[in-house]
Amino acid sequence: xxxxxxxxxxxxxxxxxxxxxxxxxxxxxxxxxxxxxxxxxxxxxxxxxxxxxxxxxxxxxxxxxxxxxxxxxxxxxxxxxxxxxxxxxxxxxxxxxxxxxxxxxxx
Length: 107
What we know:
Blueprint: H1 3-13, H2 21-33, H3 38-45, H4 49-106
C-alpha cells in the first residue's frame, strides 16, 4: 500500500464533526441574512457549504414551529390552570353546601 492510500483511509475513518445547536443556529441565521455568501460563511466557519444550506433551509422551514410550540405550551398551561381552578371551585361549593346544612341543623 502506498503512503497516499494510507492517508486516504485515515481520512475515511475520521468521525463527522458535531456542532452545537447554538452554532448551527448562528451560522444558519447569518446565511439567512445573506450579508455574506454561503462560500464565505463556509470558509469562515470551517463548514461545508452544503451543510450551511441545509441548516438555513431548516431554519427557514421549521423556524415557525418554534413560535407555534411556545403558544401551544402556553395554551396547555392555561388549560391546566383552568382545570385546577374549576376543581377548587367544585370543592369549595361542596364545603359551602355541607357547612350550610350543618348550620341549618344547629339553627
